[in-house]
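Fold this sequence, please.
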Amino acid sequence: MTPAELYDFILDLASRAERRGDWGRPGPIADEVQRHVMDVLFTIARADGDISRAESAFLAELLASASPSEQAQLREMVTGFGRAGPGSLRRVPHYFRILVAGDQMRGTVNAANVAACIRELGLHLLAADGQSLPQEVALLTEHVSVLQTAVAEAGVQQPRAEGASENALAGTEVLNPSAGQAEAHPSLQPQPAPTPPVQADEKEQVPPAHLNDLMAKLHRLVGLERVKKEVETLANLVRVRKMRQERKMTVPPMTLHMVFTGNPGTGKTTVARLLSEIFRALGVLSKGHLVETDRSGLVAGYVGQTAINVAEKVQAAMGGMLFIDEAYALASSDSGQDFGREAVDALVKLMEDNRADLIVVVAGYPEPMEKFLNSNPGLRSRFNRFLQFDDYAGPELFAILERMCEEHGYWLTPAAAEHARRVFQEMYDQRGANFANGRDVRNAFEKALARHANRVGPMTDVSDEVLCTLHRPDFGGGAEPAPELEPEAVVASAEEPVAETGSEGAAEVDVERLANTESGARAGTETESALDAEADAAGPSEIPAEAVRPVDPSA
């Protein structure tokens, strides 16, 4: 879609909310939409201190298409856009909250569509001018993340559109209106990512995962907020680069080799595996697989063999990502007899020679990694992406435990949950050099399973509930408080009818009020039935397939 079509799509989605009566402020909703979109774009364009000629031409064309005003009026309007500075991009505009509340009640995905279209508008702007790309991409990524967080907190579903390409290459959409239909806003049809020819002796490759699915997996990880933002920025940088290549524009050099620093158990390998798939979905890597190794897989015991080992690992990782854990061990010795330095020297050359279809990630503790990067004169310059993985705080450690219990079919009693929260908070507060983050949680979970087995094993006629319930003693705490409410009673109390207010039928809906409260989105589900007829009459949203996808009726 063109920038003008993207803007019109945003305006149409917002106007539907106004027609339903959701917009309660003076003046049309279109005014706030224009202010928001233009503020975002002008703020990004001014990130390097001034608006370039290419950016100015892009913004003037978009503004002219968005407003039928005279040129003098347009110039007056422009002076106000983007003057609030980058801080304004950390706020969610009111009309967007209105869309979120409406989506929560009606089961639509209009707010997520708006966020996706704003992202695409920003990428079009960045593709028009390549100056200060990292800083501008970071601003765009931060604002889109703020909007997506508002959508996620409301619990609005974002399923894939029917027929959406699994080989989607984000950022290279083309218009594809249905034959014989005059669509006001044709849907986005992503193009497949290029794949290399399959050799006769190679196994058929699995199609790349959808980019949105991969990013959703990333954001479902507990914690790692800084890492998630960096990955979003990297993905946007790659997309802008490809857009400029397709338009025959000059492309600044970009190195994707990375350094991961952090303590054990902070998700470095998990993120690396996701990153390799993300880069394949973006068309950067041809295979997107991850090859893990460490010093033992690279260094041999005699002269000449180390370079061969390094070359074999690099060859195995071609088309994907080579992940070297505890890479600092390659430079741990000052002895001239150590072959770790030979591995580093060989790695530096192979990284440079194969950077078109290979990404190398080295990982380890922060301080030892500094020594590693200084062990070869050309090594540090090969890496310009540094991702710091922070330790998990107490609540995040408990969230990991909950994920483990859910994955393996266990649940915690309230007393067990309270005790586990306290244990993990103390673990974090008293952490030392051996603190292992997620690995410590896994160890605590396995010990709880062992205590549970010792407690339940001697029993006879064990129910499913007993097999699946972890109590406080399983985590090393005291006995459970008595009496404990049975799960059936909990369900029964949750299903007790709530006293109705107002006249017979559904309660009156005030979307304006819902949008101004943190609990508005959740409260909207209680009045969904009252709006079904009105929402159906307004017609379904046309949804960009690359960005956000319509709700599956069977869900």
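The beta strands are 168-175, 188-192, 258-262, 290-293, 321-324, 359-364, 385-389, 411-412, 469-470. Residues 3-192 form one domain.
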